[in-house]
Structures are given as C-alpha cells and as structure tokens.
Amino acid sequence: MAKKKKKVELSSEGKTELAKAIAEKSQNFAKTYARIEILVSRFFRWLSGWLDRLLFNQKHGKAVALILAILLYVTFNAADANIFETTKSAQELGNYKISQVISTQNYEVSGLPQSVKVTAIGDLSDIQGIKQRSGIRVVADMTNLTEGVHEVKFTTEGAPSQVDLVVEPSSAMVTIKKKSIRKFSVGFDYLNRNSMDPIYDLSAPEMEQGEVLVRASTDTLDKIAYVKALIKVNSGITSDFETKATVYAYDGNGKRMNVDIIPNKIPVKVKVTKPSKEVAVVLNPTGTIPNGKAIESYSIDYPKVTIFGNASLLEGIKELPITIPASTLTSDREITMPIILPNGVTKVSPKNIVNISIKLADMKTKDIDDVDIKISNATAGYTFYFENKDSTTVTLKGAESVIEAIKKEDLSVTADVSKINKEGVYEVPLLVSGKNRLASYELQNAVIKVRAVKAK
C-alpha cells in the first residue's frame, strides 16, 4: 500500500514571513504596471501631436488630402465599382417560331429553323413583365432579297427598351426560290372512322372538284407524290352527311408538305351504308383424329350468322370456317369456339362465339375412279397436254355416312403448271380437294406428266 503524505504545518512565525513576501511582490507588480501605463500614455500624446502638426499644417495639407482621396477611390473600386447600380439578370424565355416577312405567294423559303431560343437580359422585374406578355416576335425580314442563298439575321419585336433579347441562333442561311403552279388530282381518306358503329360503312365521297392547284417551287412540286382530301367523320354518324375536307400534299414517304393548295378545302358528300351478308358457319378439322375415328356429324347453335363490312369485301366471303385440331377429338364432345373474322369484316351478329356438338364414328375408306384432272395456272402463250390419261382415282377417308354421300362432281384434282415457262415434258404434282370438310382426300398417283407446247 502507498504511504500517505504527511501535511506540513507552518508555525506562526513562518506564516508571518510568507505574508511579508507576498506583499513585497504585489508592490513590485503595481509599480511595473504604473511605469508601462505612463509610457503608453506618452506614446499616444506624441503620436497625436505629430498627426496634428501633419494634418493641420498648411504646407502638408494638400498632399494629405490627395493621399486620402486616392485611398478612398481604390477602396471603393476594389470592393464594387458598381455598388450603386441595379443588378441585371438573364433568363430564358423559351422557343419562339420565326415570323417570315416575304411575299409567300411568290417565293418559297427553305433553311429557316422551326424555332429559336430567346433569352432576356435586364432587371428581374422587367423580365417577369415580359413573360406575362404575348407580343414578343422573332422576325426574319427578307423583303429586299431575291432568288438565291442568303444569310438572314433575326430581329425581335415587342420587348421594352430596357430589356435586351438575345436570339440563338442569331441567323440562318436560307434558300429563296420563285413559286410556280401545277394541277394535281385529289384522292381522299377518312379521319376518325373507327368512332362509327362498325356495322356502318362509308362509300367513296362525292367531291365538288377532283383537282386542285398547288403552288410551290419547281423542286418542291416535283417531290409531291399525291394529294389527299382528309374527311373528318363525326362520332356516332349513322346517315349520309356533307362536310368540307381539308386538302394536303404528301411526298413519297407519306410526309405532309408545306405548299400552297388552291382551294385548300373541298365540299364533299358522303353516303353511309349498312352492308351485310348472311353466311354459314362450318367446322374445319385439321390433322388426323386418333384411334381410327372420324367425324360423323356436328351441330352448331348458330349455323348461320350475319357479317358486316365493306360491300365489295363481303361479296367474296362464302362461309366462316372454324378450325380445330383433329388430334384433340378422342370422343364425342361439345366445345365452344370463337368465330375468326376475315380482315375487313367489322362485326358479326348475333354472336362471335358458337357452341359445337361433335359426334364421332369409325373411319372408313372409299375409292372414286376416273376423276378428271384439270390444268391450273397455265403460263400465257403455252398449251398443256397430259402425256397419259387425264383422270385419276381419289381415295376418301371418313365416317361411312359422310363418304357415301360424296360424289365425283364434289371432287377437284388439279395440275399446277405455273412454274413451266419452256416447251418440254414435266412431272407436275397433283392437288386434290373436296367440298365436304369432314372427309380427307388422297391420290393413288400424286404426280402426272404434262407436255408444254408454245402456242403459234
């Protein structure tokens, strides 16, 4: 364990001596401080007297004033020479279209940018005032220019005098060409057609005039591929209507061209029709039914439906086939299938989904002999002959009740000679088909020899 330090006790005589020593040191410190105070006071009195003699002496007064003026000037300029002036700001006003000043009826201008960026410089309050105004314009003045290539500098209008407007870019190289006039035939197109009920169709419009005049430079006129009148169709239209169609010119890429069209609007009359046709819905199995089975019969809850669309398109539609993979038919069954509409058919009624009930039976075969072979897709200028017989045997496969009902006249066997363009003898594949989709058709001989003779 550490030993405790013993406290030293001073005697009364020691304490008296210590007090005397402290008192002597205090007196010495007080005397030293008094001497320093006297010296500082003397220095400032001397400095004050020296400055008085310097500043208020007529001999040195002008020199002192000059020195003070120089010091003040340098101080203020170093801090901010414009400390009392208003601080200017710069703000972008956005993009502005360029106003052309030129006779647009006589000249075509190319090379001007679509828009330019405008920046305002001035007092912040003045700039805010400009933003609330709509009178700012960027102008390309070309009134004194003729045909050719020119550099045009942009100017601004509508800004107060205390605000400077900076335009970027400030100029552009433009090409000025003299305009000429050419006549064009007018086509048409409908806008917003899908807003109509799909059961309605629009006929070709009756236009007041079929031609317009287009005014532009010769180079631009040569680029025009077609001119169209765009006819706007109002929503919910169900009957004939009249309107004015706006006319536009387009280049070969379908891009709208900036040209003068006279007139630019044409009165049109449009007939609204409701073409429709009733067609049969038929089953079209593809592939082979497993387990030696075939479709004996089927029934559809809507065997006939009404379709709507363009009248000329409807003429070529005889039936609506519903295709199903035959490999999925392993027993009698009922299925629900959608009706796939051909392109251009806009609507089907009463439903686009039908329920089909299918009945299967054992598959049988049957041969039909002496089915005539016909030439198809003959090349112009050639006559074709069969080297051997011009008939063949077709094997039918299907349910017994189906194939027994098929006659020779229900079959079609063709030899496609579209690839033959020289005289000679060729082997041509045969194609077979039948009216009844529930049966399959095969040929005992799938090729035939054909002689091509050039017509004289």
What does this 3D model show about the protein?
Helices cover 20% and strands 46% of the residues. With 456 residues, it is an alpha+beta fold. It folds into 4 domains: 89-178, RNA Polymerase Alpha Subunit, Chain A, domain 2; 180-273, YbbR-like domain (RNA Polymerase Alpha Subunit, Chain A, domain 2, Beta Complex), CATH 2.170.120; 276-361, YbbR-like domain (RNA Polymerase Alpha Subunit, Chain A, domain 2); 364-454, RNA Polymerase Alpha Subunit, Chain A, domain 2 (Beta Complex). Strands 19, 22, 24, 25, 26, 27, 28, 29 and 30 form a 9-stranded mixed beta sheet that branches. Strand 13 (226-232) and strand 14 (241-250) form a beta hairpin. The longest helix has 44 residues, at 12-55. 14% of the residues are buried.
What keywords describe this structure?
single chain; 456 residues; alpha+beta; RNA Polymerase Alpha Subunit, Chain A, domain 2; 4 domains; 7-stranded mixed β-sheet; 6 helices; 46% strand; elongated; disordered N terminus; YbbR; c-di-AMP_regulator; YbbR-like domain-containing protein
